[in-house]
Amino acid sequence: MKISITCMALLLTVEFSFAQQATPAPTQSRENYLNKSQNQKIGAWFLMLGGVALLVRTAGNHAVNSISNVPPPFPIVPVALSAGCIGGSIALFKASSRNKKKTLGAAAYFNILSIPSTQSATSGTTFVPAFSIKLN
């Protein structure tokens, strides 16, 4: 029973990993990239300030506790968390600048336009493929 469940899980994983995307990803406009860049930059600042604040707090606690004759153990967990926050903020700053650079390039889109049409006294909507180019 375990082998059959494992094989089914493996087959489902392989199927989803090699399957093609059924619906195309929506195209992003300049405003979307600018908004995404701004949100990433705000998140990066929060992570950076949180990491620095945690590091300062940990250093302050460690200095106060080390006044006694017995030195306290090194606070590895708070230092690792603050280093992770600072590292994550650097990654977000880089992603923010990359998204801002994406807004400067030219973009071409394939769109399907819906056009109202009248054919033999009936009105409806006709879909026409269109190609649009945006130069920023």
Question: Outline, from the CA principal axes?
Answer: elongated
Strand content: 15-25%
Elements, N to C (H/E): HHHEE
Distance between the termini: 59 Å
Helix percent reads 55-70%
Strand order of the largest sheet: 1-2
User: Largest beta sheet, briefly?
Assistant: 2 strands, antiparallel
Uncertain residue segments: none
Q: What is the number of helical segments per DSSP (H or I, 4+ residues)?
A: 3
Evaluate the radius of gyration: 27 Å
| Mean pLDDT over all positions | 78
Strand element count: 2
Name the structural class. alpha+beta
Written overview of the protein:
The chain has 136 residues and is an alpha+beta fold. It has a domain at 27-105. The protein has three helices and two strands, in the order αααββ. Strands 1-2 form a two-stranded antiparallel sheet. α2 (30-65) runs antiparallel to α3. The longest helix has 36 residues, at 30-65. The model has no long low-confidence stretch (mean pLDDT 78).
